[in-house]
Amino acid sequence: MILRNSLLLVVLVSFACKKATINDESTHINYLINASELNAIIHQKNIKIIDFREKYFYDQEHIVDAIHLWRTAIEDTSYPYNGMMPTAKQLEILFGSLGISNEDTLVVYDNNGLCEAARLWWILQNYDFKNIKMLQGGIEGWKAINGRVTQEVPKKTITEFTLSKNPSMKYAISKEEVVTAFSKKIILVDTRSFDEFSGKQQKKGASKAGRIPNSIHIDWAEAINFHGNQELKSVETLAEFYAKKLKATKNDSIILYCHSGVRSAHTTFVLTQLLGYKNVKNYDGSWTEWSYFNDLPFTNDSLTTIN
Predict the structure, then answer these.
(1) Class of residue 253 by CB neighbours under 10 A (exposed 0-12, middle 13-18, buried 19+)
(2) In degrees rounded to 5, what are phi and psi of residue 152?
(3) Does the reported pTM lie above 0.85?
(4) Which phi and psi (to 5°) does residue 67 adopt?
(5) How many Å apart are CA 232 and CA 225, to the nearest integer?
(6) Considering 66, 258, 262, 274, which one is annotated as catalytic?
(7) pLDDT tens digits, the chain, 307 residues: what are they?
(8) For this structure, is 17 an active site residue?
(9) How many other C-beta atoms can be found within 10 angstroms of the C-beta atom of residue 300?
(10) What residue segments make up the domains of the chain, in order of their start?
(11) Cβ(76)–Cβ(155) under 8 Å?
């Protein structure tokens, strides 16, 4: 009897440990979805598909029932420069007008390797809204499995959408915090093209060309099959690449920036969600904001071409 009870105890403890392990793993959210997975849930009433491309592309064709959204709708225009993250109130009003409720799961796609989608993911993470998936392969991946597309614009019903009153801003860092971080041990990463990083190219919206001093350059597009299907590369390939480029531990402090915090939001997703880096922040204003202030330090390597 003692032996039997001991065996039963071992089984119960073993089951409990396995269950705990499963629960621990389930706390990590997979924010990616492929076309086949979307096809299996697309008719559920709480699925809201967001086409995050410029209006021209949406008007040509989009996934059935997709809502159109573009960058200019999710920025705070009160700044003297463009691209800043919207306030919670602005986002609540916008989502309510689009018929999005807190119970909905957003499935976002773009035509730029999830770069645009990742910006929305990043904003919502900062406001602690996690019901979002990004569609690998975008509309082309959807059409490859014969997913339906249309030009018809879905009807919207006004809803109430609310965000956390005390948002974590877990992946965001401000200009002032970047300045303070100069005196600390951090890794500062510029995720723009090399021409932008070197100062050869000045994109519209920037007040000058160049980069933040002590930045290292890692183009965001290195994370995707840029000249192929534009899907994310394998985790193994990404892990090897970023380990070599960053020369950092998973606990090191990393600050990312680009032109206006879009491309660097994509790298934030890759580092935190796919590779497990723990202390990653995306500088919202990025070079557009930094270049606006003449008292902030900058550097460049070459003559500039305005673009």
Answers:
(1) middle
(2) -70, 135
(3) yes
(4) -95, 140
(5) 6
(6) 258
(7) 333 333 333 333 333 333 332 233 335 799 999 999 999 999 999 999 999 999 999 999 999 999 999 999 999 999 999 999 999 999 999 999 999 999 999 999 999 999 999 999 999 999 999 999 999 999 999 999 999 999 999 999 999 999 999 999 999 999 999 999 988 889 999 999 999 999 999 999 999 999 999 999 999 999 999 888 899 999 999 999 999 999 999 999 999 999 999 999 999 999 999 999 999 999 999 999 999 999 999 999 976 667 7
(8) no
(9) 16
(10) 32-150, 172-306
(11) no
Which of the four CATH numbers 3.40.250.10, 1.10.1200.10, 3.40.1620.10, 3.30.470.20 does domain 32-150 have?
Answer: 3.40.250.10
Ranges of H-type helices in the chain: 2-26, 35-41, 55-60, 88-97, 115-126, 138-144, 175-181, 194-198, 235-246, 263-269, 286-290
| CATH number given to 172-306 | 3.40.250.10
Contact of 168 with 140, CB cutoff 8 Å: no
From residue 119, give the alpha-carbon distance in Å to each of 27, 159, 271, 286.
22, 23, 14, 13
Which amino acid is residue 216, in one-letter code?
I
What's the rounded Cα separation, in Å, for the pair 260 and 76?
A: 12
**Measured distance CA(37)–CA(43) in Å, rounded:** 12
Instruction: Find, among 129, 140, 113, the residue nearest to 167 by Cα.
Output: 129
Total residues belonging to the chain: 307
One-letter amino acid of 191: T
φ, ψ of residue 211 to 5 degrees: the values are -150, 165
